[in-house]
Amino acid sequence: MLLDVIVYLLQHSLQTLFTLLVTFGLYFFVLYPFVFSPLRDIPGPYIHRLSKIPALHYQRVGKWIRRVSDLHEKYGDVVILSPTEISVNGDSKYINDIYIKNFPKSPFYENFRNHGFKDNIFSSLENDRHLGYKKLVMSLYSKSAVFSHKNPTRQNIVNKVRLVVDNIYQSSVTGNQPDYINAKGEENIHSKGFNLQDGGKWFNPSSKTKNLGIDVYPLFASLAMDVVSAFELGVENGSNLLKHPEQRGIVATHALQALMGFWTTLMPRFWNWAASSRIKQASVVIEEWQLAMYDVAEANVPSFCEGQNMTTLEQLKKNGLTGKNAYSFLSDNIFAGHETTAIQLAFLTFELLRPCNFKVQRKLIEELQKTFGKPKGPQDYIEDLETVDSLPYLDLIMLENSRVHTSIPGAEPRIVDRPYYVNVYNKDSKTSKQVGIPVGTTISCLPYGMHRVESVFPNSEHWIPERWMPYEHETPLEYNSRITTQQKYMMPFGKGIRMCLGMNVAQIEMKMAIANIYWHCNSKLCEDWCEITSKENDPVLSTSPVPIGNSAPKNKTDIEKMTMYDLYTTRPLNDECWLEWYENE
Ligand code: HEM
């Protein structure tokens, strides 16, 4: 009987092939997505139900955050991204369920391993393994540890911030040491200097002698690198980029490697194929640079007095994580810590100088001068971390900046590991229904989207620090309730047990930098670097929000040049931001 069937099929091979193709097509293109898929009731475009390829494509070309935001706009709070992945937004309940209740991380993170695929706290997927790591080091990163007079981080932040102020005076205010290195742009392949290949001639064509433009992006990245590497390895063993501008190329080298984020995290097998020789060389240089720093730290173990915390390296070693097993933690922190901090500071200084925000910059300077008086000279610095930390206006500027320009706007994917239901709203019938999400599904919130929920943050695209203050006629109760809601939607440092370990270091470092810089100086955009849209006095253009994207039509105006790159970790489109600094009256 079976033989007869086989013979029949072979004799009618064309018809058999046709029938098989139609059956397969029917199943793959119709039955699975609409009848059998457990995600069939999740709204979203047809193409995303069929395959992971569209999601991968948008991530590869740097249009994914825009795409997911648009999908939510069109389909609602819950959308399908691929046959096994959904995105949830628009309701803080999802932040609570996924991140605070701790769904484990998706394999996306596994590829943040370093030094021969050695695990670290950021890349660990399973909750219990992560908790084990966290217990080893968390006490070092608490706010009280960072602020403690016994630990060196406090004084180190003060010292490094002094160097930033000195740099701004030397290179911009007085013009004594112009920023020729960055003007030439030899290291940063996206910079104006690199692309013009004019040896930096575009810079300062009017031969001004003071208030020159400087590229603050590598300056802030150097601050963050110096602070975080000293934190991990000891003050004597960290990088010294602020003192040695000629060594700052390492920041651009990191930025080059970070461009491979898609291949590193989602297509690691094709990394070698996709990487240019320049990028491969960058990876080698970075690893050598890191290992050289770790060698110095191994040979020069700081002495720890009674009650003083160890460095991260020594703490890891004490707990049995040695060699590359420890270095993987350090390299991850150095990478994650320097880039994110520089991004926040660059966008913050950019926002503060836009004419629509002049009044914010003025108010900040007033707050600083009211609290600390006026500086007695360029070498007078604010050193009081506690007072800076408690400045209310500075605090809300930072908050608003981390909302609009969150350094990690990209989805933070987790895996559903327990029965879970989402609320799907049907716009046509105006009804909602609970849809069960199978265990194993990838689920994520998009910080970029959560920070732009219009009902919670009206005019959400706009940078408005005042939204964190009481509105006129708002009672204290109403104000508190509004701020509590706004906070529930914020995830600039993530949320839950996997939230940023270095948050306390980064926050006070950024506040100290901004407080010291604006206590002394105010800023303008460098007109040699970009066209200033706001000069046109166009009320729409001059206040238009900074977009997110992978390119800018002409890449000439301030807004174009400061476009947030559409990546898991964003950055200014050209990895540069040129500002001029003027001493305050
Ligand atoms: C403005 C600066 C920073 C921002 C905006 C930031 C943001 C974040 C975010 C959003 C996450 C969670 C990512 C996710 O779950 O997908 C994270 C995790 C992490 N960050 Fe940061 N970060 C900053 C600075 C730092 C610094 C300075 C360090 C190190 C000293 C650091 C170390 C870490 C680590 C180790 C994790 C993983 C924590 C865990 O899984 O337990 N970050 N950060």
Automatic annotation (TrEMBL):
<dbReference type="InterPro" id="IPR036396">
    <property type="entry name" value="Cyt_P450_sf"/>
</dbReference>
<keyword id="KW-0503">Monooxygenase</keyword>
<feature type="binding site" description="axial binding residue">
    <location>
        <position position="500"/>
    </location>
    <ligand>
        <name>heme</name>
    </ligand>
</feature>
<keyword id="KW-0349">Heme</keyword>
<dbReference type="GO" id="GO:0016705">
    <property type="term" value="F:oxidoreductase activity, acting on paired donors, with incorporation or reduction of molecular oxygen"/>
</dbReference>
<dbReference type="Pfam" id="PF00067">
    <property type="entry name" value="p450"/>
</dbReference>
<feature type="transmembrane region" description="Helical">
    <location>
        <begin position="12"/>
        <end position="35"/>
    </location>
</feature>
<keyword id="KW-0472">Membrane</keyword>
<dbReference type="GO" id="GO:0005506">
    <property type="term" value="F:iron ion binding"/>
</dbReference>
<dbReference type="InterPro" id="IPR002403">
    <property type="entry name" value="Cyt_P450_E_grp-IV"/>
</dbReference>
<dbReference type="GO" id="GO:0004497">
    <property type="term" value="F:monooxygenase activity"/>
</dbReference>
<dbReference type="InterPro" id="IPR017972">
    <property type="entry name" value="Cyt_P450_CS"/>
</dbReference>
<protein>
    <recommendedName>
        <fullName>Cytochrome P450</fullName>
    </recommendedName>
</protein>
<dbReference type="InterPro" id="IPR050121">
    <property type="entry name" value="Cytochrome_P450_monoxygenase"/>
</dbReference>
<dbReference type="InterPro" id="IPR001128">
    <property type="entry name" value="Cyt_P450"/>
</dbReference>
<keyword id="KW-0479">Metal-binding</keyword>
<dbReference type="GO" id="GO:0020037">
    <property type="term" value="F:heme binding"/>
</dbReference>
<keyword id="KW-0408">Iron</keyword>
<keyword id="KW-0812">Transmembrane</keyword>
<comment type="similarity">
    <text>Belongs to the cytochrome P450 family.</text>
</comment>
<keyword id="KW-0560">Oxidoreductase</keyword>
<keyword id="KW-1133">Transmembrane helix</keyword>
